[in-house]
Amino acid sequence: MNQRTKRVFMSLCGVVICSVSIGIFKLAALGVDPFQSLMSGLDHMIPISFGTLYMIVNLILLSFALLTDRHYIGIATFINLFLLGYITQFSYALLQRIFPDPSLIFRFGCLLVAIVIICFGSALYMTADLGVSTYDAIALVCANKWKLGPFKYIRIITDLVCVGSGILVFLISGGELGMVPTFVGIGTIITAFFMGPLIDWFNRKFAIPLLNK
């Protein structure tokens, strides 16, 4: 497999893995990853399918990358843009049919699996360097172009902003406070503080060696 083919394969696999992981986060109902907590708030406010809403939001965020550093726009960006929301929607519906009434212990297991594989998937398509998601581009531009700090710390900040915004939008749109823990919970807190470092670890230990193999 030549280098170009390997990069495309890593990009595609990374996006699919991330999409499925979000479906697992939703099944766990113990908090989704930070960006998806924002999407959950918007999903409650805007009455369209999640896949379509995800695409619209990312088209808006795409303008940031286009204006700041087009290096991060590539095939993976558009795979993410047009496929992730719909794959997430499909995988969540499928998991609900397979596991209609998951126990709390099973949900915690799903949460741990989701955290690990979303970081693994993110590392794959980031290292492939054929573009990243429009959200990932924000932290990467801040860290690598504007030199505001290490990626893992910038990512923590952007994740916390997403979590706060998601809660605010959900409540403004009439959501009940008691429902907030279903999309902003222990899983969100763990990913907000550890997703950046975990992606960095998978980059160094797996994705980069795989690309250079």
What does this structure look like?
With 213 residues, this protein is mainly α. It has helices at residues 3-28, 34-45, 50-68, 75-98, 104-128, 134-145, 151-172, 186-212. Helix 1 packs parallel to helix 4 (75-98) and helix 2 (34-45) runs parallel beside helix 7 (151-172). The longest helix has 27 residues, at 186-212. The chain is globular. The mean pLDDT is 90.
Name the overall outline.
Answer: globular
Largest sheet features: none
Terminal CA distance: 10 Å
- How much helicity do the residues have? over 70%
Q: Low-confidence parts, pLDDT < 50 over ≥5 residues? A: none
Strand content: under 5%
Reading the helices and strands in chain order gives HHHHHHHH
The assigned structural class equals mainly alpha
**Count of extended strands:** 0
> Helix segment count?
8
What is the typical, i.e. mean, pLDDT?
A: 90
Radius of gyration over all CA atoms, rounded: 16 Å
How would you summarize the topology of this molecule?
Elements: H1 3-28, H2 34-45, H3 50-68, H4 75-98, H5 104-128, H6 134-145, H7 151-172, H8 186-212
Helix pairs in contact: 1-4, 1-5, 2-7, 3-4, 3-6, 5-8, 6-7, 7-8
List keywords for this structure.
8 helices, 213 residues, 0% strand
Quick description:
The protein has 213 residues and is mainly α. The protein is built from eight helices and no strands.
